[in-house]
Amino acid sequence: MELFQRAKAVRLKSSHDKYLTAEEDEESVTQDRNGSSRAAKWTVEFVDHSENVIRLKSCYGKYLTASNQPFLLGMTGRKVLQTLPKRLDSSVEWEPVRDNGAVKLKTRYGQFLRANGGLPPWRNSVTHDIPHRTATQEWILWEVHVVEILEAQSPAAKPAPPLVVEKEESFASVSSSPARSHSSLSASFSRQESNDSFVSSPPKGGDGRLIYFHIADEYGQIDDSFEELCITFKGSGVDELTRRLAEELGVDGITVCARSPLNGKLYPLRLHLPPNNATMHVVVVPPSSQVGQDLEET
């Protein structure tokens, strides 16, 4: 909490080298590399009668809010939004928790503000969750940059305007920030994250095969209006492919399926993949969906 004691406004930098950003729709919250944008600036408010809790207000005058809306049906993690509730409640309150040179922002219910990485639609999204995978532990770490400081006032002094710090002052005083120690997952996508759409070049020689995939909803339905995502995969086993996709998506317990060309129904892949690094089109079924549970029992 001491990190915010003198802060009037801050920027929060994620482990993906992106800043917590309030979108122009005045509702969504994402990550963006443009830290100089006014949308990446959050005003700090202190909660009365609580020494360890703050609120963060966007440039649109709305509060960073831990909503109850699921980010994706069947997946863990709930949406973080900008809202202006009639009554300020615990959904807009965050407890800063120091972690070496970084900070975790915890909700009143024990979840953490999380900067997601990996493939769309996770890439650049922000949710609140409790990370269970080692590869995503750093996604809840934030580097705090102070952009406006509250000056201490003597009782008789006339209030002065806040001091604007031209050069951002980071509380991560040591040079090793969370962004310097990316997990293998986030690092593997660092080259593509400059573009909002994920593009994979065809593999060359022994570089493996292309795996195109859709993500099914909790009912096993697939929205074909969304372009397939793609990874390059060098293995030959279904278990290995399942682990790879789980790592990329940050979700355990998925089922990798194919669609029957006859009736369009999903069936789980078994054993080995087709030979000669043939390109494949598969469907990822979330672990909590009824379809996924039914497929696992077959």
TrEMBL record:
Residues 1-142, 208-285 form the DUF569 domain. Residues 175-190 have a biased composition (Low complexity). The lineage of its organism: Eukaryota, Viridiplantae, Streptophyta, Embryophyta, Tracheophyta. Coiled coil: none annotated. Residues 175-202 are annotated as: Disordered. InterPro entries: Actin-crosslinking, DUF569, Ubiq_DUF569-assoc. SUPFAM superfamilies: Actin-crosslinking proteins. This is DUF569 domain-containing protein. CDD domains: beta-trefoil_FSCN_ACP-like. Residues 191-200 have a biased composition (Polar residues). It comes from Sesamum latifolium.
